[in-house]
Amino acid sequence: MTTATDDAAIAKRRATVAQLRATGLSLRDIAAKLGTTKDAVYRDTQALARDTATPPDQERRAPVPPEILAVALPAATPATGPATPSRDTATPPATPAVPTLTVPLDPALIADLATLTRNGTSPQAAIRHALAYVASTYRQAWEAGVYPRDANPVIERHSYVPYRPPAPERPTDDETSP
Asked: What is the pLDDT of residue 178?
């Protein structure tokens, strides 16, 4: 288990590795300067690459103009009433607390959310649908024994049902006769 001190030391070393790598030094030279092994420097460069990598399909994603937040994420409505009851009142809050998920919004996530909400779907419904789809696929792979439960299945193919626009409502015989 790493401590906060260890994590801070690793972060500092990785920042130094990134700076030295940017100057063109080899892994061996960086390791010699830092008094560590070449393998440790290699692992640091790999971790830095993972942390700063763009998703593989980034070029196919929608561009992320600043105003996309207004489209993808409607303004939050302020909560009504006090968040916690005062000590003078014995009644609990009117609405029970609901678990909330907070996720940092990077440009790729914003672009994906904008794609999923382009047809008018709310962000909450879009996220719920996407999670349900992936979770169902994972469950199927685990239950079929294709993947062990401690491994994330790789989703490789999708199938689409052809789009059929809704048929216009036809008037009944009663509505067409004079």
From this structure: 58
Residue 15's alpha-carbon distances to 36, 62, 104, 128, 143, in angstroms, are 15, 31, 22, 37, 43
Cα distances (Å, whole numbers) of residue 27 to 18, 42, 52, 53, 166: 11, 7, 19, 20, 61
The mean pLDDT of 96-112, rounded to a whole number, is 78
Distance of CA 82 to the CA centre of its chain: 31
Other beta carbons less than 10 A from residue 72's beta carbon:
21
Task: Give the list of residues 6+ apart from residue 62 with CB closer than 8 angstroms, or none.
Answer: 68, 111, 114, 115
Q: What is the mean pLDDT of the chain?
A: 76
The pLDDT assigned to 177 comes to 57
Nearest in space to 138 (alpha carbons), one of 157, 159, 152, 156: 152
d(CA 62, CA 107) in angstroms, rounded, equals 10
Band the pLDDT of 77: cuts 50, 70, 90. very low
